Amino acid sequence: MGLPAEGETIQIHSYKHNGKLHRIWEETMILKGTDQLIIGGNDRTTVVESDGRTWITREPAICYFHAKHWFNIIGMLREDGVYYYCNISSPFVWDDEALKYIDYDLDVKVYPDKSYVLLDEDEYEAHKKEMKYPGVIDLILKRNVERLIRWIKEGEGPFSDEFIDTWYEQYLRFSK
Prior knowledge:
By secondary structure, the protein is an alpha+beta fold. It has a single domain, classed as FomD barrel-like fold (Beta Barrel), CATH 2.40.380.10. It contains three helices and eleven strands; from the N terminus they run βββββββββββααα. It has helices at residues 121-130, 135-154, 161-175, and strands at 9-15, 21-33, 37-42, 46-49, 54-56, 61-66, 71-78, 81-89, 93-94, 99-110, 116-119. Strands 1-2-3-6-7-8-10 form a seven-stranded mixed barrel. The two termini are 28 Å apart. The mean pLDDT is 97. Mg(2+) 2 binds at residues 105, 107, 120, 123.
């Protein structure tokens, strides 16, 4: 089972804790792929929801997935700057079908000025009860929210000034 190659297009599958498929991104181009880190790019890709509804993303995005961190980060390039949407999630797995992760409801939206807001706390609490998230998962997720916020404040990883520019340039080179 090999990792996807740079320039290859893959699907991204998001699941819920109960194993049900949540969402599919039809096409994301691999910009970097190792067993620890996958960086992808997409623009106007089709997204399929679990109920069959589809929509198309509105802007170019750079996606960051890590095999050890319980979050993934999507940097969306808009006219007024980069907005980030961060999913608190399991680390990714790659299984030759798609990049996969479990979405744990909590999200952090980050604005171009690096201000941020934690979203969907009510949804998280409801799903924690409904799907019986183990206490250890709850602890891991809360620690990773703290780690993610520290990254935002410190400009670490995808929140550094160069990260999105560098990888978007790579995406444009591969897209030609």
